[in-house]
Amino acid sequence: MSHNTARAAIARETRTKTSKRPTIRKSLLGVTLALAATSVSTGKASAEDVVNIYSYRQPNLIQPMLDAFTNKTGIKTNVLFASKGLAQRIASEGENSPADIYLTVDISRLDAAKELGITQAVQSDAVEGTIPTQYRDPAGHWFGLTTRARVVYASKDRVGQDAITYEELADPKWKGRLCTRSGQHVYTLGLISSVIAHKGEAEAQEWLEGVKANLARKPTGNDRAQVKAIYSGECDISLGNTYYMGKMLTNEKDPEQKDWAASVKLIFPNADDRGTHVNISGMALTKHAPNRENAVKLMEYLASEEAQKLYGEANYEYPIKPGVPADELTASWGELTPDPLSLADIAKHRKTASELVDRTAFDDGPAS
Amino acid sequence: MSPSPTRVPTGARVFLILLACLALLPIAALAWIALTPAPGVWPHLLEFVLPRSAFNTVVLLVGVGFGTAALGVGSAWFVSLTRFPGRQFLQWALVLPLAMPVYIAAYGWVEFLDYSGPVQNALRDVTGWTSFRDYWFPDIRSLTGAVIIFTLVLYPYVYIPARLVFMVQGATALDAARGLGAGPARLFTKVALPLSRPAIAAGVALALMETLNDIGAVEVLGVRTLTYAVFETWLNRDSLSGAVQLALLVLLVVGGLIWLERAARNNRDFARSSREREPARLDLSVTGKAFAFSFCALPVLAGLGIPLATFATFALRRLEAFTEPALLSAALNSLTVALLCALLAVTIAYLVLQTARLHRSKRLALAGRLASLGYAIPGTVLALGLLVPLAGFDNWLDGTLRETFNWRTGLLLSGTIVILVYAHTLRFLSVAYGTIETAFLRVPPTIDMASRGLGRTGRQTALFVHVPILRAGLAVAAMLVFVDSVKELSATLLLRPFGFQTLPTLVYERASQAAIEDAAPAALAIVLVGLIPVAVLNAVPSGLTRGKMRQLAPRPA
Predict the structure, then answer these.
(1) ipTM score assigned to the predicted complex
(2) Predicted local confidence at residue A36, as pLDDT
(3) Within an 8 Å CB–CB cutoff, is residue A46 touching chain B?
(4) Assigned CATH topology for domain B10-29+39-319+331-552
(5) B383 — contact with chain A (CB < 8 Å)?
(6) CB contact under 8 A, A244 and B514
(7) Distance (Å, rounded) from C-alpha B358 to C-alpha B457?
(8) CB-based contact B498 A82, cutoff 8 Å
C-alpha cells in the first residue's frame, strides 16, 4: 500500500509541474485504491479453522494456552486486545462481527456483556461440569476461567500481625499507612461490591470513608506500584491481587522487583470468617459467533485440567476447576479460602460501588 | 477593498457538503446514542462528580492555556529575535517534545519524581533523611503536576506557529517599532504579542483540545477531569448514553469557546506585509543571554529529556526488543496510518480553507472549524461514534448484497483500516485546519488582487500563488498530524482490525500487564518515529520562508 501511496505522490509531483490541472482527485483515487487493497488483506478471517477472541486480557498472558489449543486441534486463534469498548464494538458489528469469544478480567464486564445482549448461552457438560456455580452465569452466558484473590500485602518489618480482615482496614491504627490503586478501578470496585453485598450500602460507605482516612497517599498506580511503596517505606500495607506477587518474584528483567516482593508478606483477609474476596477472569460466547463450534471447543479446552494447570503456571492465578493444584509458588503463599458469595451478586452492586467511590471522594486521597 | 463574496460553484459545494457529512457523522451518531435516557446518572453526576471534575478541568485548561502560551511565545521570541549561545540548536530542539505522547511523559515524570525515584533517593542520600515523614516533597500526581506536564509537552503547538509569525512577518513591524525607540519589553508586549495573537490562539486551542480529550495521563496523575467522569459513567456505571451526554455537553462548551474566540478575532485586522526578510536580532546582556538560554532549554529537557531518559533506562535492559518483528510491524503500521492521515487531513483542510478564501466565505471557514471539533472528543468516545454508523452501514450493505447477489462483503469499512484512517483523519483534522488557517493569514489579500488583476483565475491563483506561499504551513500541518497520529492510542485500540498493532497499542498492551518497563522499547519507538518528520520538516519553515518566499511573494507576475 505504501508503494501505491508513494507512487501517487510522485505522480502528483510530476504532473503538477507539467499540467495546470489540479490532480488532487487522482491522488485521492490512488489512496482509495491503496485502502481497498489493504481492506482485502486485513478483512474478516472467516476460514473454517479459526476462532476469534476479543479480549481485555493481554494477549501474551493467554498465548501459552492458545498455542497449546492450536497444537492440539489445529484451530488457529486471533486475538484483538483493547481496554475499553469491546462489548460496544461487538454490539455494533452485529451479525457480521468476527468475534467468537469475549474474554475479560472482571466479573462486571461479563455481566455487562450479557446485559448488552451480545452473548449466547452455552450448554456444555465439559464446561459446566468443571466450573463451580458461583463462578458462572446461572443461564450459561459466561464462565470463569481463573480466580484471583484480593489480598493485603504487608511490610514484613513494620507489620506484626499475620491475619487481617477487610473491615480492619478502616481501623484508625492504619492511619497514614495504607496504599491502594484507584477506587474506580475494577479490582477495587469488585472488593467494595462484595462489602456492599455482605454489609449493605450504608455500612460499606462508612467503611470506605474509614479506609480513605487511612490512606498514606492518593490512590494511583497499579497493584505492583503499591508493593514498591511498601518496600520504599511510603506505606505499610496495601491491597493487591495475588498473582502480582508471582510476577514480581520471577521478574528477571527488573530484578529490583524481587526485592520489593521480598519486603512484604501476603495475607489472605477474612480467612477466619467469610473468606477472601475473589474475582475471576472469564469468557463468554458471542451471540453471532461465526465459528461457534470452534469457540465452544476452545471454551472446553480452557476449562480442561491441562489448560487450567498451564494458566496457573503462567500467571500465578488459581485454577477455577476444583482439584487442579495451584502453581507451586502460588500455593506457597498459604491457603486461600474464597468468599462463597456468587459473583453474579457482586456484579449487581458495582454501580453502587462506583457511586460510593465518588460520594466519599475516595480517589482524592487522604485529607491533608 | 477586498473582492465581494462570490457563489461557491456547485461541484465544490457538493464536495464540501459531503466532507461536512463525513465530519459530523460520528457526532450525529453520538447525539443519537445520547437520546437514550440515562436514569439516575445525572443526579449523581451533579451532586458528587461534576463540581470537582469541572473545577479540575477548568483549572487544568486555564493553566495549560496560559502555560503553553507563555512557554511557546516566549521561547519563539527568544530564538527568533535575539542572539544567545545555543540558539541554533534550541530553535530546532524546541519542537521535539511534540513527539512525546502526554501519557508517556506522565509515566516518565511519575517514575522520576517517585519516592523511590532518582530525585528523592538522591535527596535522602544528601540530607540523611530516612523516611517520607522526615520531609515534604511536592506530589507530581496532582492537578498542579498535570498542568506542568501537559504544558511541557504541548507548548510546541504554540511555539511552532509563533516562530513562523516572528520569522516571516514580524521583521518589518518590529524594526519599525524599534526605530521608534521601543525597548525589548515594549517590543514584546506591544508588537510581538498582538502580531502573533492568531497564531497563539490557534496553537493554544490545539493544546487545550488535546488536554481535554486525554484520558491516559490524567489516569496516571490521578486527576479527575470531565473526560475521566465520562469513562467512569460509561464503564463503571454502565451508562453509555449518560457518558455520551456528558461528552457532548463538554463539546458544546468547547464549540462555544471557539466561536467566541472567532468573534473576538474578527474585530481586528492586522496589517500584513508580504516583504519577508530576517529580522534584526536583539543583543542581550549576559544575564539576558543566560535567561534566554534557560528559558528555551528547560522545556526541551523537561518535556522530552527526562521522560525519555526514564524510558531509556528500562529500554536498555531490553535491547533485543528493538528488533522484535512485532515492534517493527507496529512501527510500519503506525507509519502507514500516519502518512495516509496526514495526507488526507492536510488536503481536506487546505481545500476547505482555499474555497473559503476564494469565495470570501467566513461562514464556510467557521463551519470548517466546527466540523473539525472531533479533536476535543475523547478518542474512545469518538471511536464509538464512528463504529456505530459504519458498522451499521456495513451490515446493511452486506445484508442487501447477500439478498440480491448472494455476495458477502462483511465489515467492509468497520473491519478494516478504513475506519482507523477515518478516525485519525477526523481527530486530527483540527490540527491541520488551525495550522493552515494561520498560514493563510499570512497571505495578504493584495496578492489575490494582483494575481486576479493580471488575469489569473481563482484556481490558478490558488495553485501558483497561494500554494507556494503556504508550503511551509502545509508542511508543518502535515508534520503535526503525522506526529499526532503516531501517538494516537485510544481510538486505535478500539477500532483496529485483528492483528493490526500500532506502536501505541503495543505500548499499551505491554504496559497494562502492569509492567511499564516492558513497554519501554515501543514507547521509545513512538518518540523516534515521531521525531523523524519533526527533525526533517523542522528545516522546512525557515528554509522555505527565507528562500522560496522571498522569490515568490513580492515579485510581480
Answers:
(1) 0.79
(2) 46
(3) yes
(4) MetI-like fold (1.10.3720)
(5) yes
(6) yes
(7) 10
(8) no
